[in-house]
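Researcher: I'm preparing a figure for a lab meeting and need a structural model of a single chain. I don't have an experimental structure, so a prediction will have to do for now. The sequence is pasted below. Please return the structure as C-alpha cells so I can convert it later.
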Amino acid sequence: MGNHQNKTLQNVETVAEEDQRFIIDLDEIVQEWIWQTYSKTKLLSRYKYRNFLTSELTHIFPYRFRREDLVITINWKNLTLNQDDVYLYNSNSSCVSRTLFRTNFDNKTLSEQLYNFTANRSTCSTLKILFKQSLAMSHESPITLHLPKQFISFQNHIKSEQMIPLGKDTLKEFEIPWNVDSQLRIAPRTRLIAKLNVDEEEYSSHFSASIHFSGRIMASIATRQSPSICLKFIVGDIVEIISKARKTNARLNSMKILNEVLPSVVFTVHGRCLFRCGMRQHIVLNQESLELSSSSSSDCGLTPSAPSEYCHLTSSYIKTDDLIRSNPTGYQRL
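Model: Understood. Here is the structure written out cell by cell.
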C-alpha cells in the first residue's frame, strides 16, 4: 500500500476578493449572533449578578463587557451536515511518459549473453483541491470527493472516496511503487539500452456540491481573565441564525433556506481538483552495435540515470549483483 500523506495548505477563514475566492466563515456568523443575543440580556440583572458573584470577584467581572474581553466557545456536535454528490465539469486530462530508470548493457563478447534487468522505483501521485466558494468552520466537517473511475481501475493503492476538509485547500500525496525484474538476451558485440517508463495521467476538473445543514448550536461565554467561569450559556437554531444574518448581510444570499418538514440551510461549494497519477509502466529497449558506437570504449556496464526534470520522482534501490551470465563456466559482474 502507498503511503498516504494529507497536507493542509492553508486555513481559509475570510473572503479574499482579489483572487476571486469566497469563503463564508460560519464561526464568525454564529459568534456575532451570540454577541448580539448576549448584549440584549445585559448579562444578568444587578440583583442576580450580586448573588452569583462574591464581593471578591466583582473587580474581575464588571457589569458590562466589551466583546474583545469575552471568550465564546461554540459546540457544533448537534449540527447535522449532509452533502449531495459532487458534480465534475469542464474536465481535461493528458498523459505524460516519465523515465524512472535507464541503464546500458554492453555485450563485448562474440556470443549471446543473458542479462537481468532489475530496478525498483516509486512515484508520488498527488490530489490537489482548491476551493473557490465554500464554507469554513472550526468543527471538523469534511466533504467526500469520488475520484474518476479510470484512475481507480489502474491503482488499488488509492481509495475512490477522498475526505477533504471543508473550506481548506488540501494536497494529498500517494506513493506508488514500480519495479522490473526481467531477463534480457543481448546479441554479440551489442549495446542494449533499457528504460523503465511510467505513463502518468494528469487530470483537472471543476467541481460543485450542495451542502445541507441543520440543528442546534450551543455556546458558552466566559471572560479572558477567568475562562473557566461560564457567564452565560446560549442555545440557538442554526437555520434561524443564518436567516437573521442574511437580512443584514447581502453576501450571505448564496445560502438558501429550505422550509421543509425539517428546515435546513443549503450552500453550494465550488472549486477545482487537480490529480496526477501513474497509470502503467512499460520497458523500452533499444540496441546498437558496439562496433559503431563511439562511446563503447568508455561506457561499459550499468550507468543508471534519472532525468533531473522529473524531480518529483523518488527512488528506493537498484539490485545489480551478479546480473550477467557470460559463459557456462561462471558469472561476470557488470
